[in-house]
Amino acid sequence: MLPYQMIPQVSYASTAPELSDNTRYDFFSRVVPPDTYQAQAMVDIVKAMRWNYVSTVASEGNYGESGVDAFIQKSREDGGVCISQSVKIPREPKQGEFDKVIRRLRENPNARVVIMFANEDDIRRLLHAAKKANQTGHFIWVGSDSWGSKISPVVHQEEMAEGAVTILPKRLSIKGFDRYFISRTLENNRRNIWFAEFWENNFSCKLSRHAVKKGSGLKKCTNQERIGKDSNYEQEGKVQFVIDAVYAMAHALHGMHKELCPGKVGLCPKMDPINGTHLLKHIRRLNFAGIAGNPVLFNENGDAPGRYEIYQYQIRNQTAEYKIIGHWTDQLHLNVRTMQWPGGVRQIPSSICSHPCQAGERKKIVKGMPCCWHCERCDGYQYQADTYTCKMCRFDLRPNVNHTGCVPIPIVKLEWSSPWAVFPVLIAVFGIMATVFVVVTFVRYNDTPIVKASGRELSYVLLTGIFLCYATTFLMISTPDVGICSLRRIFLGLGMSISYAALLTKTNRIYRIFEQGSMSVSAPRLISPASQLAITFTLASVQLLGVCIWFGVDPSKAIIDYEDQRTSNPVMSRGVLKCDISDLSLICLLGYSMLLMVTCTVYAIKTRGVPETFNEAKPIGFTMYTTCIIWLAFIPIFFGTSQSTEKLYIQTTTLTISVSLSASVSLGLLYMPKVYVVLFHPEQNVPKRTRSLKAVVTAATMSNKFNPKAGLRPNGEAKTELCESLETQTFPTKQTYISYSNHAI
């Protein structure tokens, strides 16, 4: 006899994946495909429906647990499918066990699809629990061949099972078996010792009268009952495989007999006893058409090829049925257009862990769940580089609207039409017109006493500086380039330097004249017009020298600053086209002018005791006080807005207005009164007698001391007297009393 381990077996129903292990079950073969093929078919169905988040339910035991394990393994190998819950139904479930399973399946509402490897009874009870939990239409069931196309699991809960996708090994109903089986009776099938028991169960009757109990509802069998006529009959799904298994063993024995016992009838000595290993070889070589026409063959592990039909449980016109929607033979063939889901809808329901991220969002995968992710917006200046990464845009770029790429940051500059530019330009235009008007008036009345008394040479220099201050506004608003930036460096500080150099020279001269005159009758040095011009230009040249050194160290250029207006909201971000002049460089550029201004203010304070009717000490003093107030207000505004997104506009406008106001103060306080007298009161514009320096200074001092109202004399007599004498006479080398020729104060 053969050892039992070496007896070849051909199974018609065993689908457990473990039986494919040829090292343990090397003599085992089967005409049904293993559950690994079924699991692969189910994975393919899930992926074809674009489901990636499913739960599994298995009946405790080899079939259910192995089937689910195979599904999980295949889903991991193929990728793209994640398991939400994996639930096992005990062999002997307690009361409420199926309600508990449904509660677990509901924990993740996104996982609507449930993969089931369970026996009929567990399927029926699970559907009932789902119906009781009012989950009709929520779950999409994908059942294994244990569900297949059976009616019993879905009886009285058709709506709960609607849309279920089930799978069955491909098979055909064997008509010859139906004819044979329905013809069986108790008389013609006595050889089957279990047939009598089947008869009683099938027809709900008892063969023995004594077995019939009152109230049991059973009757005595009459032997006139007929299968399929007096009872429901449905061919068992595995009939085809039982027949194929029998034929497989028969074909193998026949082939072995032809090889070992050619031409002989019955067993020959070579087949007595049968060599199990030899018989196994013949089984594995088989390839014949089975009872349903499908080829019967085995691979090296003894498994039959996977051939499945895909069913869907549908309700049409209140009639429920299993409808074939596709098949699987190594790959899935599915007719999606014939599928119908709970409620009769055609749209495929979703069962996904996370919805696709929108444009500009990256996926942050949940650890251990590659199908689940959180969508994180690429915010700020980030853009979506790929599915999982956000990157920062380059410094001169910003993300587009949906953050899928970067676009250039718009470039801005101070436009002529901007309100920030219109007001400074208006001030500058009126200032230039007023300056030109004063210059024309002074040229027209150049030889009149008032013009002479104002110190013509320094007046024209001062007016030139005022004109440059106004003209600076146009340079500050013009589009920056190398030329404009160079002119800004030169003229922004030059106009103010010329103005304050001239005013400083004037105040210094007044101070020295009265200081010297109170102590001596000799004239101070360097008070002639030529000397005054030389001092003024020397002071102004210091500014030009500094600018030239700056050009040598750092040539001027226009730059685009992407930091000034780099807001937290990229949409508002702008690149600022400006000259390469930092705030510190600007202060250094204006620093020298401010030094001249402060020095001039100091001299204005020192000469505050000079009578108001003498020369321009008082107007210059008022001019410098006002100018200091303007620039004291400028500094906090300028630096206080250094972090503002409107920095370009505020600082430029503040600077240009401050420069223009400084020029306007000088123009208004020093020259407008003279122009008024020249044009509207020519009777006051007449020469007066001249006296010596000592006499004039003494008279001015005493007049201020004993007659405070002396300054009320018409046409500024004392002032013009002093100034005109300085314009009309020359100094001899030595004399006791000096007249003021060509030395206007």
Automatic annotation (TrEMBL):
Family matches, as InterPro entries: ANF_lig-bd_rcpt, GPCR_3, GPCR_3_9-Cys_dom, GPCR_3_9-Cys_sf, GPCR_3_C, GPCR_3_CS, GPCR_3_mGluR4, GPCR_3_mtglu_rcpt
Key words, A-Z: Cell membrane, Disulfide bond, G-protein coupled receptor, Glycoprotein, Membrane, Receptor, Signal, Transducer, Transmembrane, Transmembrane helix
Molecular-function GO terms, alphabetical: G protein-coupled receptor activity
G-protein coupled receptors family 3 profile domain sequence ranges: 420-694
Presence of keyword Phosphoprotein: no
GO CC list: plasma membrane
Membrane topology: Multi-pass membrane protein
Segments crossing the lipid bilayer: 420-446, 458-477, 489-505, 584-605, 617-639, 659-679
Location in the cell: Cell membrane
Pfam families according to UniProt: 7tm_3 (PF00003), ANF_receptor (PF01094), NCD3G (PF07562)
Keyword Ribonucleoprotein listed: no
Domain of life: Eukaryota
Coiled-coil features, chain-numbered ranges: none
Family as reported in the entry's similarity comment: Belongs to the G-protein coupled receptor 3 family.
Protein's recorded name: G-protein coupled receptors family 3 profile domain-containing protein
Originating organism: Zoarces viviparus
